[in-house]
Amino acid sequence: MKILFVTSEAHPLVKTGGLGDVAGALPDALAAEGLDVRMMIPGYPAALERAERLTDGPDLGDPLGFGRTRLISARMPGGVPLWLVDCPILFDRPGGPYNDASRADWPDNHRRFATLSWAAAYLGKVGDGKAWLPAVVHANDWQTGLAPVYLKQWRGPGPGSLITIHNILFQGRFPRAILEEVGLGPDLFDIDGVEFHGAVSFLKGGLRFADRINTVSPTYAREIQTPEMGAGLDGLLRHRKAALSGILNGADYAIWDPARNPNLIRNYDAETVAEGKAACKRDLQMRMDLAPRPEAPLFGVVSRISDQKGLDLVLAVADRLVEAGGQLVVLGSGEAAEEAEFRRLAEARQGSVAVQIGYDEPLAHRIQAAADALLVPSRFEPCGLTQLYAMRFGTLPVARRTGGLADTVIDAREPNGTGFLFDTASAVGLWTALERVFALHADATAWQAVRQRAMRQDFGWTRAARAYRDLYRKTIETAN
Ligand code: ADP
Q: What is the DSSP string of 139-196?
């Protein structure tokens, strides 16, 4: 089965969050299941630099009038074949994949991601000129939402299309005026097309025209059909319910394994977790200027800072957490006002709270290893990966019962518990869970039992890859 997996980010080329992790791991797991999967990603400078074995691929001319575009054929560092969409005027610039150094969205994002979507649709439709023609184009999030739209606009036979929603809040909305610019006709500016509240929505286009839709956990697949959590697209999703499903993401244990992780001062496994984590905690306390207190329950946060992640709740309980004898270490970046609040908190609680604002991959691993518990108080969470990594690292997640968190964490009150869940997105809700964390942590035997179970959970990608294989089959059936 030939699959074109198109994405705007993929670890280790470019990553801003969970999509990058998924795109860095799922194609590998699909290949291991025998699928002929190839990826496509914009030719950002970092991607051109980190991809391997670059050779010339098909020349696409100037598809939408934004500039000469060619495909460069390459390999992911893990070996999966890859096309880089090389259009320097759109992609060859410093900064992030979606925004510039001051975090403003690139003003030409509609052009950049229409071009990515167009290239994927084109390859899906006509192949690479060397007899590779995919049966399914697998789009991910709004950045590739137009791929199913182009495919449905073009006449004649084509591949099936699947779109995965990694986060429904990001929709790629642009003014009406860009519609013709991205090569779509005015007839599509309609409730049955790409129109969404007077704007053009790339995600809506994908959800409207893809043969199949899925999201990254079964609970989130249900939640996005409700007005509370559907971000305005719940009506369309209820309408397309028969084509919608949820597949839980996996964790890439080649990277997120405390026994092999190169970022840790001491590697450990379930047998050696107590000594291993103690060493990692000492190391982190020293590096982050936390008091060297081995007995203090250390709470970690590794997260984007946005309303979704509920870190305002962490700010609200931080004083109590410290007064109860805990320590807090936060790695995150995002909304400036909340970043500043975390900085102020660290200043006020020196020795007990350490905050690093920014993106730091090695530190993310060190926190996972050093902390006793990881705080994930998300208001919504499509799947969430940090709680999966935490469990493998023997760090108990303290998570809100929503989306993928509800699907992966079992509360310690259950006989097979692996973490702590709370229901109400409020300081009281989180604090009530933290009281239970402190109580369990004080009982070393009970803590060790939950930690052992957490470490033994298997959220590897094989299960997910098999579910995607079945979904690709259904996508092909739907398309024909
Ligand atoms: P989301 O995709 O909503 O950001 P996920 O939990 O699915 O959340 O994925 C987050 C990924 O990004 C994890 O790999 C996590 O370790 C990483 N991450 C988040 N913030 C940071 C940061 N500031 N520095 C390093 N890694 C981060």
A: EESGGGTHHHHHHHHS-S---EEEEEES-TT---EEETTHHHHTT--GGGSSTTTTEE
pLDDT tens digit sequence for 293-339 = 999 999 999 999 999 999 999 999 999 999 999 999 999 999 999 99
Q: How far is the CA of 225 from the centre of ligand 1 (A)?
A: 25
* Structure tokens that stand for 216 in this block: 């990254």
**Site to substitute for ligand 1 among 168, 220, 304, 342, most atoms within 8 A of C-beta:** 304
Task: Indicate which residue's Cα is closest to atom 12 of ligand 1.
Answer: 17
Q: Is residue 333 helix, strand or coil?
A: strand
Please tell me the predicted confidence (pLDDT) of residue 256: 96
Tens-digit pLDDT profile for residues 359-372: 999 999 999 999 99
| CA 184/CA 405 separation, integer angstroms | 38
Residues in the chain: 480
Is the pLDDT at 77 greater than 90? The verdict is yes
Pairing state between β 298-305 and 195-196: unpaired
Q: Whose CA is nearest to atom 22 of ligand 1?
A: 359
- Does the beta carbon of 300 sit less than 6 angstroms from any atom of ligand 1? no
Token readout for 448 is: 């060790």
Is residue 374 lining ligand 1, measured as CB closer than 6 Å?
Answer: no
The pLDDT assigned to 388 comes to: 98
Identify the H or E element spanning 304.
strand 298-305
Secondary structure in 3-state letters for 187-232: HHCCCCCCEECCEEEHHHHHHHHCCEEEECCHHHHHHCCCCCCCCC
Q: Is the CB of 376 under 6 A from ligand 1?
A: no
Contact status, residue 115 vs residue 66, Cβ threshold 8 Å: yes
What span, in angstroms and rounded, lies between the C-alpha atoms of 319 and 325? 10
* pLDDT (tens digit per residue) in 384-429: 999 999 999 999 999 999 999 999 999 999 999 999 999 999 999 9
Q: What is the pTM of this model?
A: 0.93
Does the CB atom of residue 303 touch ligand 1 within 6 A? Answer: yes
> Going from the N-terminus, what domains does the chain have, and what CATH number goes with each?
2-250+461-479 (3.40.50.2000), 273-455 (3.40.50.2000)
Tokens of residue 475, six digits: 């996508």
DSSP helix/strand/coil, 10: strand
Reported confidence tier of residue 17, pLDDT bands at 50, 70, 90:
confident
CA distance linking residue 111 with residue 200, whole number of Å: 13
